[in-house]
Amino acid sequence: VQPDTAIRVALGDRSYDIHAAPGLLSRAGSLVRPLLAGGRVFVVTDDVVAPLYLGRLEMSLRAAGIDSRHAVLPAGEATKCFARLEGLLDDMLAARCERSTAIVALGGGVIGDLAGFAASILLRGVPFLQIPTTLLSQVDSSVGGKTGVNTGRGKNLVGSFHQPRLVLADIDTLATLPPRQLKAGYAEVLKMGLIGDADLFAWLESNGVALLAGDAACRQRAVLASCGAKARIVAADERESDQRALLNLGHTFGHALEAEAGYDGLLLHGEAVGIGLLLAFDLSVRLGLCPPGDLARLTRHFADLALPAGLPRLPGGRRWSVERLMGHFAADKKVRDGRVTFVLGKGIGRCVLCSEVPPDILAGVLGDAICRGESGDVP
Ligand SMILES: NC(=O)c1ccc[n+]([C@@H]2O[C@H](COP(=O)([O-])OP(=O)(O)OC[C@H]3O[C@@H](n4cnc5c(N)ncnc54)[C@H](O)[C@@H]3O)[C@@H](O)[C@H]2O)c1
Ligand SMILES: [Zn+2]
Q: Which of 80, 113, 157 to mutate to test the pocket of ligand 1 (most atoms within 8 A of CB)?
């Protein structure tokens, strides 16, 4: 691996490398082998990814003398739950996983979050490796050590911090990713630019179309830029006492939209985050924090790339409601002393935390978004 295809997450004796390059699956065995004490791994994947990439990974592991077992779970957000976690832990114990057996997540953020959580509690913690195969997981969820499952009361409310020992983002795997999933992951790249890297945002304005269309060099560069930015933030604030909270840009809105839409595919996480980015900048403009021109620039970028920008129609004749969305904010993990913290933009590439948002202004942002959605008049 060339040095410029790797990024180090600096966390003392838990530091690790992120590699982003084409062809990494076929070289996984030799990259993983030096990190294994026991020479054994347990691969967790889903039933969409398994037929595409599990064979290639296992062949490479075997060639490096690594003994591997695997579990294949149903694809989709519903898999990130307690029942699947329990079944997975049982599979791992049945396969005689030991303290030195590394758990490998091969798939998107669902598999990464679930397998990482399992690795953090199996035998009180075993090594964990990430091989993310969606754009979202390559640019975001595979880095930083947050793991967990969803409960009936909301997303990601139960979990742990468990850093991986290695992240291998094989850019080639993105070639089979459906366009909708690609766009969802793109929202998290955009987020990184908006938070603290105006140059990245400007680069995306020029290269976003090529990235979505399949340009591998653009994809690699976006993954490295996003992971580099996230690695710096995580190294400075692993447990989210302040700086790491900036990564929640678009997510307070996004999580509320996801919760209302349900988790059955009407609104993907990245789609909700993308809309959330627009709403966060809309809010920032209304609070007088952000120049309106920056919101216009962001809105234009959504149009240029045909990214989902408005609320989808809810099934079963249900309507979006400001009150219900506001209710979801109160259930957000980021509430402290009853106050919701929002990440706001002072401009593109400059975000800040704010826990003093007047409810009437917030309600105005949501109400207008709902009106635009219902009239089909998406910005
Ligand atoms: N831990 C974190 O820090 C963090 C950060 C952001 C998001 N997340 C979590 O990540 C999850 C979303 O992750 P996601 O968007 O990767 O979803 P996902 O894991 O559900 O993957 C999306 C779909 O793409 C399929 N797929 C995966 N790789 C493919 C490939 N190469 N080719 C074709 N199909 C492929 C999957 O089978 C699935 O159907 C959410 O649960 C979210 O909460 C976690
Ligand atoms: Zn996210």
A: 113
**Residue 363 — left, alpha, or beta (φ > 0 → left; ψ -120 to 50 → alpha)?**
alpha
Residue (of 358, 166, 184) closest to 269 by Cα position: 184
- Tell me the pLDDT of the chain averaged across its residues: 94
In the predicted structure, residue 362 carries a pLDDT above the cut 80: yes
User: What predicted TM-score, i.e. pTM, was given to this entire model?
Assistant: 0.95
Ligand nearest to the CA of 190: 2
Give 155 Cα–ligand 1 centroid separation in angstroms.
Answer: 14
Tokens coding 50: 């398994």
Q: Convert the pLDDT of each residue in 149-163 to its tens digit.
A: 998 887 888 999 999
Distance CA 273, CA 250 (A): 5
In this structure, which residues have their CB less than 5 angstroms from ion ligand 2?
A: 273
Q: Is the CB of 260 under 6 A from ligand 1?
A: no
